[in-house]
Design goal:
alpha/beta; 10 helices; 7 strands; five-stranded mixed beta sheet
Length: 222
């Protein structure tokens, strides 16, 4: 079984990951350094994305709490934040939306097959043989016995996800994970992307990412 650690502990591991490396891929060394040295803003979208993973993958590693007293402003909101420091705060409608997305993923036959028996939110670490740099990854789904990896993405529409996965670096992210698993575990995996629409009716799509495309992406990031 792969190590399952809290997200905050994963972030604290001093190693290169795709979330930072993508700023070098899309920008420059200056953009990469700026990202590494700056605090990332935790947006509502990111919070909902984490909750989607927790609900769909069964991998709660942090406490979620619901704020039921109106808008995120005013004395009541500030007091609630102070009382729940370090917790992820969402509103009831946001939790309901994510719950529907997660249910759609679990009900999808192919998505369920890919996730079945997989280690979820699995942390892996390896040393890059080209540079000697410590590297890390946090994989949504890793099933070494069946040699498959899965990555879950919320999206505005399946057609949008299909068209923009390269521009947003999703293929490169999967290539990073696949390379890490090959180096750390000695296993060559097939790789799948699972997309779920964040708005009703929450359609779900599954793509098996072409190996030649993954190789091209890997060549761009090493």
């Amino acid at each position: 079984m792969a190590a399952v650690i809290p997200f905050a502990d994963y972030c604290a591991i001093d190693a290169v990951n795709w979330s930072s490396l993508k700023h070098l891929w899309t920008g420059s060394p200056l953009h990469y350094r700026h990202h590494r040295e700056s605090a990332d803003k935790d947006t509502t979208g990111r919070k909902m994305g984490r909750l989607l993973h927790a609900m769909a993958l069964g991998s709660f590693d942090e406490e979620f709490v619901v704020f039921e007293d109106g808008d995120r402003r005013g004395k009541v909101w500030e007091a609630f934040k102070a009382a729940n420091a370090g917790r992820t705060i969402l509103k009831p409608n946001e939790v309901a939306d994510v719950r529907a997305q997660a249910a759609a993923v679990r009900a999808h036959r192919e998505a369920s097959r890919i996730l079945a028996g997989a280690d979820t939110e699995a942390t892996i670490q390896w040393t890059d043989p080209e540079t000697g740099l410590p590297c890390k990854g946090r994989l949504d789904a890793m099933a070494l016995a069946s040699e498959r990896l899965g990555d879950l993405k919320g999206c505005g529409g399946l057609a949008v996800l299909d068209r923009t996965c390269h521009r947003l670096g999703y293929v490169h992210q999967l290539a990073w994970y696949r390379r890490g698993v090959r180096i750390a575990k000695g296993v060559k995996c097939s790789t799948y992307m699972i997309g779920v629409e964040t708005k009703a009716p929450h359609d779900v799509g599954v793509w098996r990412v072409d190996r030649d495309l993954l190789k091209l992406a890997e060549n761009e990031i090493i």
